[in-house]
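Supplementary Text 2. Reproducibility record for the structural model of the 187-residue chain.

All settings were left at their defaults, and a single model was retained for analysis rather than an ensemble. We include the record here because the model underlies the residue-level annotations in Supplementary Table 4.
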Amino acid sequence: MKIGYARVSRDDQRLDLQRDALTAAGCEKLFSDKASGTKAARPGLSEALAFARPGDVLVVWRLDRLGRSLAELVRLVGELEAAGVGLESLKEQINTTSAAGRLVFHVFAAMAEFERNLIRERTHAGLDAAKARGRTGGRPGVPPGTIAAIQALASDDSRPPAEICKALQISRSTLYKYRRPNVTPAG
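Retained model, structure tokens:
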């Protein structure tokens, strides 16, 4: 049996396109969620996974509808394989019910992981090069004069925090961070 799963991220988005594609692909049962892919709690996906039996195929319009991260997709495909359930993605034309489909999925997964590792290496190389030139990154520190002004104004209980923040053009978190005496800027 083909089981369809559709997901949109926000309540104002519609599932019609995905539902039509899943129905046209021969899905007999459809499950759906209106939730971000980053949310762990997706009741529609949980129901679809609980409903699936060995030999069934979970069909999604696109892989990103099933999960946002590669690690999550690989984990889900592993769970499906362990349960004897295949995965089919209509847009990417991946079907894990065949050996070739599983190979293609895992090659895509390996390529995505490789790309993520390259990005991480380039980022670290850039940070190391900047550090060698004396740049440490991060936000600029709060000038000592501003810290003194924060402490002076905050010591007057009649001034509301919003007024102090507006006068010094600082955020409320900066005010609370430096309002006590003996607080020095980090850096």
